[in-house]
């Protein structure tokens, strides 16, 4: 009986969060989650149209351009093996969307697997009917870090 009550509360909590999001927020959240899968799959054909040609990518070891990020993903010099998304916050201002994901990232970097806690900031801009990513920044955080909403 206790398990049933906990299950119902969990379901209601998830349902409230889903319905509280606007259609644009739901679209951006799906796009962000899809992006993690495409990065894991090294699916350049889906990432290339998402990344704005002038986007910047900030990692622990440097900042680079869209062309370099795509090359890194394609060659596997960084393989985003699994982004376990723990929490997400989204704000939309005009035609700009900002997404904060708190993740545990398992990546293969130069042949070694590493697991790191990050808050990742993604900035998107709506161009016509499509969202384009302008920035992706990894900030190393403690596993207790929370995103204020």
From TrEMBL:
It comes from the Bacteria. It holds the Pfam family DUF4440. Residues 1-20 form the signal peptide. Residues 30-133 form the DUF4440 domain. Gene3D superfamilies: 3.10.450.50. Keywords: Signal. This is DUF4440 domain-containing protein. The keyword Membrane does not apply. InterPro entries: DUF4440, NTF2-like_dom_sf. It comes from Algoriphagus alkaliphilus.
């Amino acid at each position: 009986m206790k398990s049933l009550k906990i299950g119902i509360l969990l379901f209601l909590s998830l349902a409230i969060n889903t319905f509280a999001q606007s259609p644009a927020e739901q679209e951006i959240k799906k796009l962000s989650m899809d992006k993690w899968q495409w990065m894991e799959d090294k699916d350049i054909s889906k990432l290339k149209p998402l990344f704005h040609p002038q986007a910047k990518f900030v990692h622990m070891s440097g900042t680079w351009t869209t062309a370099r990020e795509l090359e890194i993903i394609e060659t596997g010099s960084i393989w985003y093996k699994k982004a376990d998304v723990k929490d997400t916050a989204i704000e939309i201002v005009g035609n700009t969307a900002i997404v904060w994901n708190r993740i545990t990232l398992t990546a293969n970097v130069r042949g070694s697997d590493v697991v790191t806690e990050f808050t990742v900031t993604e900035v998107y801009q709506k161009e016509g009917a499509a969202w384009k990513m302008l920035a992706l920044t990894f900030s190393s955080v403690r596993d207790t870090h929370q995103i204020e909403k």
